[in-house]
Amino acid sequence: MGRLHLIIFFFLISLSLHAQNPEWINYYGRSPEIFTVAVEGDYIWTGGERGLMRVNTVNDERIFYDKLNSGLPNNIVRSLAVDKSGIKWIGTDEGLVKYDGTSWTIFTTSNSGLPSDIVLSLAIDSSDNIWIGTYKGGLAKFDGINWTIYTTSNSNLPDDRVNSLAIDGDGTKWIGTYSSGLAKFDGINWSTFDTSNSVLISNYVKCIHIDRNGVKWIGTGNGLVKYDGTTWSGYNTSNSEIPFYTVTSVASDDSGNLWIGTVFSGLAKFNGEIWTVYDHKNSSFPSYDISSIVNDNKGNIWVGTYGAEIISPNCGLLKFDGKEWKLYKTANSDLPVKCATVSLCLDENQNVWIATWGSGLIQYNDTCCNVYNISNSGLPTDYISTHIIDKQGNIWIGSSYGLAKFDRSNWTLFNTSNSGLPDNQVSSLAVDSSQNIWIGCGTNLVKFDGANWTAYNSSNSGLPFSGVDPILVDKNQNIWIGSDHHGLTKFDGTNWTVYNSSNSILPDYPISSLGTNGDDNIWIGTWGGGLVKFDGFTWVVYDIFITGLFFNNVGPLAVDGENNIWIGTSNHSLIKYDGTNWTTFDRYNSGLPLSSVSSLAADKKGNMWIGTWEGLTLYKEGGIVGIKEKAEENIPTEFLLLQNYPNPFNPSTVISWQLAVGAHVTLKVYDVLGNEVATLVNEEKNPGTYEVEFQLAVGNRRLASGIYFYQLRAGNFVQMKKMIVLK
Question: CB within 8 A of 696, min separation 6: which ones?
Answer without folding.
Answer: 650, 651, 652, 702, 703, 725
